[in-house]
Amino acid sequence: MKSGIHSFLLIGISSLLLISCSNNAPKETKLIPKEAMVVVSFDPNALKEKLQNGGISFDSILAKGFQKDSTNLEDQQKVADFRNNSGINWEEKFHFFNYPKKGNGNINIMSLLFSISDTVVFNQYLSKLKWQDKKPVSKEKDFQYLPLSDNNFLAWNKEHALVMIYENKVTPYYDTVNMRFVIPEKKDSKKDVLEELTRLFTQKESASMASVKEFGKMFKTKAEGYLFASSGGTLAALSGMPLQLPKLEELVSNNYTAATLAFEDGKIVAKSVTHTNPLLSSILKKYAGPTVNTDLIKTFPSQNINAIVMASFNPAIFGGVLKELEVEGFVNEFLNKSGVSAAELYGAIKGDIAVVVSDLGIGMTEPQTRKDELSLVVKKPIGKLIINIPAGKPENFKKLLGKIAERGFIVKNGTDYKSGDLFGQMGIYMVANESGLIIASDSVTYSQYKLNNAKATINNEALNYFKGKSTVLYIDIANTLNGFGKDSSDGYYNSLNTARNTIKDIMGSSENFSDNSITSILEINMQDQKQNSLVTLVSLFTNIAVDTRAVARREKEMEEKLFPSGIPTVIRAN
């Protein structure tokens, strides 16, 4: 009896351990290779639930998007067939991923992975689709496939389907005999694509993203969308470098970023965690940075701020990376030819940076245009910009400025250094001295900023959000759209106005390194704080869809009036 109880307890404890340690990655992710650089996943079922809770159905979205269009019945039927009669399983997640081909960094492979609910229905749906030069469905041992174009294939088995885009970059080379550049012809990649598809459909779980602990852990959090980025794919590019740096592979391998996207009431929230390997973790821990310096944005010569970006870091981290890579001596030897050392270079800055943009909008029309041509005129965008980078060690900063001045990029004017001819031609107004470097959109904006008497108008919520962060981002969407929408006279005015009344602002930040990871958050805040953000966003997108179809319809009608027999080939080609 006791042995039976002990056995039962042992089985129970083992089961609990297996459950707690089990991989949460969706089963279809066994088709995603471990070397995938980016995986973007979304859950259509979770999205549908959010919409239904907000009182919106897919049919109502469809009806709104196709309203006021004589072709709406035909187009709606196509969408309805795709949704209801395609054999696609809309209850499971969809995954987009890309990765470089092993051993060939010039080939990039992008794929969309989804599940199939009924293979027979899926095949029937594909057979009904018609397009020019459509190829027949073919079979391999482990899957069927349908070529969509030369390098794009749709492949599927009984459970899952892949749309693969095989991108083979062709690199021109110089023919020294004929003294000209030659662009090689792209070869037929069908064999290579089928080999890659076979690999994905037959690979073991240990070779897939499903075996990556951080990837599976991400799906424990209930969300509508997921993003996973890995540094593993960069190893293929590094292997092709002419100069192989010691420990570089160790530094960049096994770093992961996992992010979730959730549609909450009044805002869209994206949270991410970057997990770093032991070597990179030791560097980030040793050279932990301070938090952003909000004093840099206390004053600004405008009450109409559109965006703010701030960051703070420990400049000595650059030296730490060079030491770990064992190339500090090599870099110093190279820099000594310019008269500065690596330590002087990164010691010249304090590690703070602030970027402020304001008064974005559409400027004056071109002088040669008439007032009755406003809708046809390309107007010049306007705005103000300030980039403030405080100096670190004054002696290092002044030495660096002197070396740059010797090369003619900047010119010394008293105790200040200002933009040289090259920077001036690029429209860059820059002033630097022992306090630091300031880049402005123009001299007037710089002078007003330096007067330091105009308090910046930033909402308190954003200022409180900035405290204690290592990097911050703020974009006033409503204010920015208002600047561009004042003189808007095209067919998208209604969409622009709706967007301005829908989205309030964007706020993002990241924390300093802690517990072998870096956490970040991005929030898109809506004007309506009570309604679910997905419902709000769908309403906006349907309005944009209505405007888009209306503009396309008007353009087509105008084209038919001007060219009843069709646009001449010469005009269409140009």
What does this structure look like?
- The chain is of the alpha+beta class and 574 residues long.
- The chain has a domain at 268-528.
- The protein is built from 21 helices and 22 strands.
- It has a 20-stranded antiparallel beta sheet, with helices on both faces.
- Strand 8 (173-175) and strand 9 form a beta hairpin.
- The radius of gyration is 29 Å and the shape is globular.
Topology:
Elements: H1 2-21, E1 38-42, H2 44-53, H3 58-65, H4 72-84, E2 94-101, E3 104-115, H5 119-128, E4 138-139, E5 144-147, E6 152-156, E7 160-168, E8 173-175, E9 180-182, H6 190-202, H7 213-218, E10 225-230, H8 234-239, H9 248-252, E11 256-264, E12 267-275, H10 278-286, E13 305-312, H11 316-324, H12 328-336, H13 342-347, E14 352-362, E15 381-390, H14 394-406, E16 410-413, E17 416-419, H15 421-425, E18 429-433, E19 436-440, H16 443-451, H17 460-466, E20 471-475, H18 477-485, H19 493-500, E21 503-510, E22 517-526, H20 533-562, H21 569-573
Antiparallel strand pairs: 1-2, 1-10, 2-3, 3-7, 4-5, 5-6, 6-7, 8-9, 10-11, 11-12, 12-22, 13-14, 13-20, 14-15, 15-19, 16-17, 17-18, 18-19, 20-21, 21-22
Helix pairs in contact: 3-20, 10-11, 18-19, 19-20
